[in-house]
Design a protein that fits this description.
6 helices; 172 residues
């Protein structure tokens, strides 16, 4: 049995989930020919991606606030007038930085999956090579944009807008 372990950026796991869902989204241009059914399912996937990030950020902030033992910054550091607000802003900025990192990692993972030796079934199972190539090209453009524009993408809705924008003219 092969095992996989990874030690790296915290944003990696959330990025992995979102990029896999994005690849699934792209694969349905070929896998789901009925337009209404495809649009509904892709809408579900967009909502799922939004929910993955939103819930991660909410739970992370909530756990940090309610279980802060000063691991990152000593609790005494925040013991001043306005410290509560400053700590809230510190958490907000930390999560915003995690988001930026997550966008870039998701883009990197998309590119690796399209150009590396590890394929993704959602795309590789598209039987028609021309249709598969369309999904692959969009994934490469999407990954490139997420990497190159990560610093300018500030919300999950902006991130997903790039996905929708890159796939808006698909004709399969």
């Amino acid at each position: 049995m092969r095992k996989f372990a990874f030690f790296g950026p915290m944003a990696y796991d959330v990025a992995a989930v979102i990029q896999n869902l994005a690849l699934n989204y792209l694969s349905h241009f070929a896998h789901t020919p009925e337009v209404k059914e495809r649009v509904e399912f892709q809408g579900y996937l967009l909502a799922l991606m939004r929910g993955v990030w939103t819930e991660f950020a909410r739970k992370f902030e909530d756990l940090w606030f309610h279980n802060n033992r000063g691991e990152l910054v000593s609790n005494k550091y925040w013991d001043f007038q306005g410290g509560k607000e400053a700590f809230a802003e510190f958490r907000r900025q930390y999560i915003a930085d995690l988001f930026t990192e997550m966008v870039g990692i998701a883009g990197t993972k998309l590119l690796r999956r399209m150009m590396g030796i590890v394929t993704v079934w959602d795309i590789s199972s598209i039987p028609d090579p021309a249709k598969r190539a369309v999904a692959e090209r969009i994934a490469i453009r999407l990954g490139t944009r997420w990497v190159m524009e990560a610093e300018n993408i500030h919300t999950i809705d902006e991130m997903l807008a790039v996905l929708v924008d890159e796939s808006k003219e698909v004709k399969i």
